[in-house]
Amino acid sequence: MAHAYTPGLKVLEHTVLTKERRLPLPGEIVVQKGSTVSAEQVVARTNLPGNVQTLNVAGLLGILPAEIDEVMLKQCGQCCGKEEVCAESKGFFGLFKTQVKSPIQGEIESISKITGQVILREPPIPVEVIAYIDGEVVDIIKSEGVEIRTTGSFIQGIFGIGGETIGQIAMAVDDPKEVLVPESIDESFKDKVIIGGSMAEFSALEKARDVGAKGVVVGGIEDQDLKKFMGYDIGVAITGSENVGITVIATEGFGKLRMADRTFALLKSLSGRKTSMNGATQIRAGVMRPELIVPSSTKSAAKKKADLSTGTGLENGMKVRIIREPYFGLIGRVVGLPVALSKIDTEAKVRVLDVELEDKRKVTLPRANVEIIEE
Predict the structure, then answer these.
(1) Helical packing angle, 223-230 and 202-211, nearest 10°
(2) Would you say 214 and 191 are in contact if contact means Cβ atoms under 8 Å apart?
(3) Residue 19, Cβ neighbours under 10 Å: how many?
């Protein structure tokens, strides 16, 4: 029988993960294959070319472009300080000279006799790539990056904002249905990843950022609170580059949604452990989920190997989360996969599945309305 494929949301206590860490441009790899690295360790570095500025020397000095070499005090490849004289006219009998000063500190990249212009380039911008996770370097991508493998826990969320960050997991609530409020957060959460319950209030997000927390993980978040927190309306096609001072992950969706018991229990068991966290989310081609990775403290054998592909076959007994109304956010197990197409409320005929919810109710849903929770 043909497989039905659906998105999978991974909540794994033990797994093997491999992360590729690449430079934006070819550069230097500073670790060796087989070496053990920490999440904060630099594994590769390069220099991005600095910005360029154009200086119209011929126009400023009132000369022909072909005469530019006669007035230049600096040549190609030489450096100029900011406000340093780089060209000077001959003047009259050595007097009344006009000078051209460099607007930036940089290097002269070209001098054109055709346009009479000088191109200056600012100093290169150093870029360093860190390991992001504690683990072992299993492969070197020549001049481009490395692959790092680790064993540990892996939790994916529905939606997130903010980029990569590293901190210790700290519980701020005792129950997955609790709302994260400012009173639950104090200075002890500095540099921590705060775990909340069903939702984080806007004021709680502000408090977390103010005390210097690295991240916040909750079940859900109100769209208006997120917009207010960021200062602008965010598109959900791709996130991760927001500069809001903290990374936020919602594990269940938008609104007040109780965090899944299994997710909350796993995070609670990992309290005090270092986690690598990334809020980057992409819902179109090349689906990307926000994530938390907690490397194991010992080299225990992994029960599963995480497959970061976008599709998994539905089977009876699988745990799923419903992602559309009227059962949005509820958890259940697949108890039936009818082969025949069924008519739904919209009059469309689609493939459906039978799900037994946690309260023992049985519902029939379109297969597109669920996502797998990998255990």
Answers:
(1) 40
(2) yes
(3) 17
- The alpha carbon of 26 is separated from its chain's Cα centroid by a whole number of angstroms, namely 21
Q: Which of 93, 121, 149 is the last residue of a domain?
A: 121
Cβ atoms within 10 Å, residue 365 = 21
Q: What are the DSSP E strand ranges found in 247-301? A: 247-254, 274-278, 291-295
Choose among 314, 309, 313: nearest CA to 332: 314
Distances (CA, A) of 23 to 45, 141, 142, 150: 7, 10, 11, 20
Q: What's the CATH number where 110 sits?
A: 2.40.50
2 within domain boundaries:
no
Tens of pLDDT, residue by residue over 257-303, are: 889 888 999 999 999 999 999 999 887 656 788 999 999 875 444 44
**pTM, two decimal places:** 0.77
Tell whether 31 and 172 lie within a shared domain.
yes
